[in-house]
Please model this.
Amino acid sequence: MVNEPDLEIIVIGGSAGSISVMIQILSALPLQFPLSIVIVLHRLKNVSSEMNKILSMGRRGLNIHEPDDKEPVQPGTIYLAPQNYHLLVEADKSFGLDYSELVNYSRPAIDVTFESVAQVFGPKAVGVLLSGANHDGAAGLQAIVEQGGRGIVQDPETAEYPTMPRAALAKTQRVDIFTPQQIVTYLESLCC
Amino acid sequence: MSSQHEINPEELNAIIDLIRLQYGYDFSDYAPASFRRRIARCMSTAGIKTAYDLKFHLLNDKPFFGWFLQSITVNVTEMFRDPAFYKMLREQVLPTLASYPVLKIWHAGCATGEEVFSMAILLQEEGLLRRTRIYATDLNPANLERARTGIVPLQHMRDYTFNYIQSGGKNEFSSYYTARYENAIIDKELRQNILFSPHNLVTDQVFNEFQLICCRNVLIYFNKVLQNRVIHLFYDSLSPLGYLAIGMKESLLFSDIRDRFDVVSATTKVFRRKM
Model:
């Protein structure tokens, strides 16, 4: 794996069929993972949710945090986009929330976070797009790649719902197609 | 959002200056990430390709500005959004407010009124509506006009009913509105003590004293400087021991007067002004 010492942030987007992959990735993650990780999942609104606990299932010491507005994006921290908001990043690397129209029928929308991360972090960002049944994330992943960041798409063959990975691949070819295990191996390689 | 409508920070500042000088709305302390996205979205909808063209339209086409204002300000709202918040209001805040002979509540940034109507239902069920005056304000005149009609799109009523039940609602939700074609109209009785009126949190001042101020998911559009200023405005508008409710993911952390509030509920973000 290429040495990528300048990376600052990994954004992972997923929808239908992505939670098990997300758990697989997170539970394999070294506890001392040095970068910021931001997870955007399509999820229900107006219900009490313990999604952060579900994602850190079976992993002691793994803390997944839903950021408040204006909270700084810290290294070594895993964030989950809160329900019913779009999650953006400001130029000063703090989070911004937005309660505006649905994008791709979703709020949080993966495109919104990915595009915002692309603008602020440019080549220091990696976008990972997992299983899903709509087209959210395709434009966002393209934006990350266009700004010099790295794009990774879950191999559609391994995805429970391949629509989302396929939509991303149709938009940009300059991405890696990884199985969940390869995604894990890649993230591990960034650690040490 | 297509990248061809991206505008750079200098262009953004020029657009903000133009709007301020020409129309008196000051967006200079809005949070840039979200605001830039709004403008890009607006340009894309209007088929405007460059910042120069946008400025041209803003300068020369007043009706365009009306539309532009409507589209860049976020007017999304729901009835009983975050049921846990309304449950908390019902169980912990309203009982203490019941001791006031007359109650004044301010909804700041009320959009098209859905949260205000939710509050009115809550007050009705707790027997407080008749002695409450609700001041509901927004900067956007089109929103206020809509809110005054009491009309809510029917398509969302199923979600709202779900929210209402989750929030501890005591009645049939449908008993609060009349459905007609695509719309629901909120009962007049619920709306008679609501005053919808223009107020811009950026430029306008204290106008009354309140026992409860609700300003949920409005501060997220402001930068830290403006957030702090608005929290001062709220502090100055609250009676001692008056309540302030903000969005579930908003915080007072970046305000220099956060110590002048007690935390009533950290999860639903309800605060209380100290004496």
About this structure: The longest helix of chain A spans residues 110-121.
